[in-house]
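Page 42, continued from yesterday. The earlier attempt failed because a stray header line got pasted into the input along with the sequence. Redoing it now with the clean sequence only.
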Amino acid sequence: MASTATEIERPLTPLKSSRAEKARWVPLAFAAVYILWGSTYIGIRIAIESFPPLAMAAIRHSLVGLILYPILRIKTGIRPTAANWSTAVVTGVSLLCITNGGLSWAEQRVPSGIAALLVATISLWLVILDWLRPRGTRPGPRVFVGLILGFVGLALLVGPAKMGGARRIDLVGAGVLLIGAFIWAGASLYSKQRTMPESPLLVVAMQSLAGGAGLWGAAAFSGELGALHLRAVSGRSWMALIYLIVFGSGIGFTAYLYILKKSMPSKVATYAFVNPVVALFLGWLLAGETITTRTAIAAAVILTAVILVISAPRARAAKARDL
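This time it went through. C-alpha cells are written below.
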C-alpha cells in the first residue's frame, strides 16, 4: 500500500507546483500590467519635456526591436517569412508609429490622464469595427448601452469650455488620440486574420522594428530630427525613456503575455479600465495635472462603458462565426 500511495502522489506534484506558481505569479503579473502600463502615460509626458515626441518614440521602439529581434531569432530558431514581415510592417506602423507616436505627440497638448481615457476607447472601436466587418458580430443590448455611454463620456470630456470647472480639452490633441485608438482597433482585427510567428515576443520585436522605422521617417518629415539635441535632454527625460523601454515595453509586455496564457481573457481585458485610473492618479501626483469635476464624471462614464463592453458575454453563434 505504501508503494501504491507513492506512485499516486508522484504525478500530482507537478500539478500542485503549477497551481502554486500560478497563485504566486499571476497576481504579480496583473499588478505589473495595471501599474506599469498605466504609468507609461506619465512616463511619456516626462520624456517629451526635452525629447521631441516622435523622435523619443522612435528611439524607444527601435531599441526594443534591435535588442529583442536577434535574441529571439536565435532562441526560437524561427525565420519569419515575407508574409510575416508584411503583416508586421502593417501592424507595427499602425500600432506603434501612428497610435503610439500620435499619443506621444498629443501629450504635448493633452494631460496624460485624459490621454489614457481617450486611448481606452479602443475597446469601443473594436466592437464597432468587428460589427461592421463582413460576417461581423452584432453587439448585444448590453454592449449597445456601453457604446452609447462611451460616446456620451467623450462628449462630456471634450465638450463646451468651462463646463464643470474645466477649460476645453485641446481638440486637435484629442482628435489625434481618438484616430489613433480607431487605427489600433483596426490593426488588431487585421492581425487576427494574418499568420504570424508562434513566438509573441518575436512578433513584438518585428513590429517594433517596423514601427520604429516609421517613426524615424515621421520624425524626419516633421523636422524633429533637426530639433533633437541629445546633450540638451535632461536626466529626468532620459530616465523616463529608460523606464518606458525597460518597464513599459519589457517587463510590462512580458507580464501581459504571461497573463494571456494563465488567465481568462475577460480578466486580462480589465487592464483597459485600470490603466486610465492609474494614469489619472500619477498625472495628478507627479505632474500636477488637475482632475476637475468634468474629468471625474467623464472618466466614470467612459470607464463604465468600457466595463460593460468588455464584460458582456458573447453569443455562441457569434463565436462560431469567428472561428
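Notes: The chain has a mean pLDDT of 86.
Reminder to self: strip header lines before submitting.
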